[in-house]
Specification:
- There is one protein chain.
- This protein is mainly alpha-helical and about 170 residues long.
- Helix content is about 65%, strand content about 5%.
- It contains five helices and two strands, in the order H-H-E-E-H-H-H.
- Strands 1-2 form a two-stranded antiparallel ribbon.
- A hairpin with a 2-residue loop joins strand 1 and strand 2 (about 65-70).
- Helix 2 packs across helix 3 (about 70-105).
- It is elongated, with a radius of gyration of 28 Å.
């Protein structure tokens, strides 16, 4: 029974679902990139080398075997195209967005909830600061940006305060 529970926990992890979505999107995206390489870049490069496509160019015959340098070059170009599109279309814009949000948070500018949804971390930080303000304590974010250590059985209001269990 332990093996089934372990498998259930593994499947229910968020990162497994995210990975599955990434694989499916990646497979669909591969078709788009392949079409760009086969429809645009291979014919252009093939025209330079007087071949029908890049796959048919730069062939070297050694005895009964043929080495296809053009095929390797086509795969390399496809890899570079995928990497460039993933970086410039996804990674760079998301990193820029995160940097802008971090700068706005540090400046104390409230985020527009429609454009920048509040994260769990934002909400928990606000709750912590409100609880600390009610107790007259200096909040960790105001003091050092390092959260105070949590001692089991205690709460922000002390050991006799509410205990939370999940």
């Amino acid at each position: 029974m332990g093996m089934i529970n372990g498998f259930k926990e593994f499947i229910m992890r968020g990162n497994v679902i995210e990975l599955a979505v990434a694989v499916v999107i990646g497979a669909a995206f591969t078709g788009v990139v392949k079409a760009i390489v086969d429809g645009i870049f291979n014919p252009l490069i093939g025209a330079i080398f007087n071949a029908e496509s890049l796959n048919d160019s730069m062939n070297v015959t050694l005895g009964a075997s043929t080495i296809s340098f053009g095929l390797v070059l086509a795969a390399l170009i496809q890899f570079l195209l995928v990497a460039a599109v993933v970086y410039f279309a996804f990674v760079m814009p998301l990193n820029t967005l995160k940097e802008h949000q971090a700068r706005r948070r540090q400046a104390g500018v409230p985020l527009d909830p429609k454009k920048n949804p509040i994260t769990d971390l934002d909400l928990l930080t606000e709750i912590r600061d409100l609880l600390a303000a009610q107790n007259g304590a200096v909040t960790p974010s105001a003091a050092t940006d390092v959260p105070a250590p949590y001692t089991a059985g205690t709460s922000p209001s002390g050991p006799e305060g509410a205990k939370h269990t999940l």
